[in-house]
Each structure stands twice: as structure tokens, then as C-alpha cells.
Amino acid sequence: MSQGFEIKSTSGKKSSLPQLPLPEVAEIQDIQQSFLAHFADIKDPRVERTKKHQLTDILAIAIFAIIAGAQGWEDIENYGISKKKWLEEFLALPYGIPSDDTFRRVFEFLDPEALNRCFGRWVETLVTKTGGEIIPIDGKTIRGSYDRNQGKSALHVITAWSSEQRLVLAQMKVDDKSNEITAIPALLELLDITDSIITIDAMGTQTEIAQKIIEKKGNYVLTLKANHPTLHHQVKEWFERASAQQFSGIDVSYEQRIESGHHRREIRQVWSVPITVIGELYQPRLWAGLKSVVMVVRVRHLWNKTTREVQFYLTSLDSDAQLLGRAIRKHWGIENQAHWTLDCTFAEDACRIRSKHSPRNLAVLRRIALNALNCEPTYKRSLRQKMKRAAMDNDYLIQIISSCFLDKILDSSDSFCQA
Predict the structure, then answer these.
(1) Which of 213, 226, 355, 418 is deepest in the core (most CB within 10 A)?
(2) Strand 197-200 versus strand 264-274 pairing type
(3) What is the per-residue pLDDT across 263-285, written as a single tens digit (0 to 9) for each?
(4) What is the distance of C-alpha 21 from the center of its chain?
(5) What is the DSSP letter of 71?
(6) Which of 313, 295, 306, 301 is CA-nearest to residue 258?
(7) How many CB atoms lie within 10 A of CB 101?
(8) Could you tell me the CA-to-CA distances from 219 to 180, 231, 314 in Å, in that order?
(9) Whole-angstrom Cα distance, residue 57 to residue 295?
């Protein structure tokens, strides 16, 4: 049983690709204990007489398979069958590899809240203290989970993303009869955001959300759009007048950045001013901790056209265009590195699994896989190439698992997730 996670030396011709030396891999006992500890609280939803396969075996195979690129129940079963001899070295598998129907039934009835809590505790072992880090929060609809015949709307989840550590910190389902406005405060309750910068798009620009962030000793940068028409119009007119006068006599912070790539050139200009210089704002006291207002102008030169976009923001930070411009730019990390990756690399939107709790549970497993792949630093390739190598190379898969399922529990004073 102890040989399953050992990296065995191989002989023969070496690969021509340059590889970094692999760090020491933990013993199988340590990884097994950590894995079991993270998922120990999940209750098996099956009745006793149908428990031919152990729940921990089912969870382990599903996680390994999704890390290796599996997209559905048949993929997970095929992965188990292909790796059966290797999996038998460290999993019980009393009746062999579970069928695709077994995987489906288990994840249909497995409590998604319990799995999400286990996910939160696991993330707690991965993150370092995040004071001063930029944490974007954004929603994502898993479109393939829509079921017209059952009258079931598509699953919508909101996610907190660590822009520096490239990790999904927490996620929460948005109730069918609710929206992100009510879900974001509940998500914030799961996190320690002390001294962090929370960035949210226009849907989350609400006075209650600003109040919650300040109460939890964080800072915010909130997008201001026409869903607050009076305040948006007032801020827009003020910046138009100030720009026409080139901000003469105004305490303004300014930064400009020029970036080129992908056949385009982008110029980003950031102006930030304290709210005291604007004068009378519409109900400013409703926005807890509000200190500054920001205008960002983005001019993109493409090969066939030029576009110009103007955007405004409310923030509890002091007027510092460099810091605020960085925070606003980092917000797109959740779109590019999390949501886009889940859709294009993990094929989340294309997945038609939609029965009972299976969409939520599979969404959690994908985020476990995304975090695990991002935690493995030695193979300097895309996530897709990492997944392919994990599918073909058992040793590399164990390198991924050992990089994120080791017991690195933080002290309670440094705990990031409060679930």
C-alpha cells in the first residue's frame, strides 16, 4: 500500500525537454492522512446495502481524473479503468473501479454544502496571509447546467480569487430566486479580508456590501455604473469638467500605462481624487469608508479599429492612481485565469451534467483541480499541458497531489478561511 505515491527511477533515453529538479515528494501515508482529514466530514449519501465502493475511493478517483482532464462520469470511469493497477496500490477498491453510474449517483446526492466546507478547509492550508492582496469577486453561470425539461435554471456561483497566489479562495451558489447582491456578503463571511483590497463589478456596487467589507477590516474598489444613476451622472460630469480644465488646481493622482501584445496596443490612464475635492456627492454617507473616486480611460488600438472606454470607481483607499490602477487591472485576473480557464481548459460551460446536486459538486471538484494544478510550480507549461502530463505520468500526478495535499495547516491567527 505504501508504494503507490513513490516516484520510481526510470532508465533509458532522457527527455530532450529541460526540466527543473522535482522537489521531494511526501510519503503516501502523509498524503492519505491529509486527504482523508480534509474530506472526513462528508457523509456518504448511500444506504448501507449499496455501499460496494468506499466514498473516499470515489472522491479520490474523481479528483485525480479531473486533474488529468476528465469532463464527465464516463471519463472518470475510464480514467479509473486505465489506472486500475496503479490505483490498487493505495486505494481499497474492494469491488474494482466504480462504474460511471456509481459516480453519477454519488455526486447527485452528496451534500454540496459539506463538500464546499471541505474545499474551504483545504484552501486554508494552501494560502498564505493575504494582507494587502487584491481579491476580485465575480459571478459565473455554468450554462450547461440549465435543464429546460425540469424547469431548472443554470447554476450561478460567485467566486473569490487570489490574484497573487492564483487560487480560488471560496465560492458560493447564488440561490435561484436571489442574485449576487445577497450572495456576496455571505461569501465575505467565509473569508478573512483584513487589509485586503476587494474588487467587484457593478452588480456588487451596493452600500450594504461596502459596509460589510469595512466591518471585516478590508478595503474596496467598486465599479460605478448606471445602476446608481444619480451618483454615476454626478461623478461623470465632475470628471468631464475637471478634464476640460486639465485638473488645474485639483489634488489629483495620475498614472498612465502603455501595453502592447496580441496585435493590439492599449493605453490606460488613471485619475483618482479624494471625495472632498468633488464637493456635494449624492448620499456619500451611505458608502462606508468612501475616500476616493477614480476615472479610468482605456484606448485600444486594434489592427482595424480604435476603441475608447471610460469607467468610474468608488474606493475606500486613499487617492493613489498607481495602486488603484493596479487593483482595477488585477480584477480581470478572475476572468482570465479562473473563469476563462474553467470554460476553455476544463470545458465547464459545455458540460451537460445537470441532475440534482451533481453540477454544484462537479464545480467544486473542478476548482480543486484548478488550485492543485496552479500549486505545482516545476513544470513550466500551460494548465492544459499539465493536465495531459498528469494523465500520462503517474509520478507527475503525485507531484501535483503532494504539492497541495500536504498538512500545511496555518496557525489560527493566520487562518484565511473562516468557514
Answers:
(1) 213
(2) unpaired
(3) 889 999 999 999 999 988 888 88
(4) 28
(5) -
(6) 301
(7) 11
(8) 19, 20, 11
(9) 53
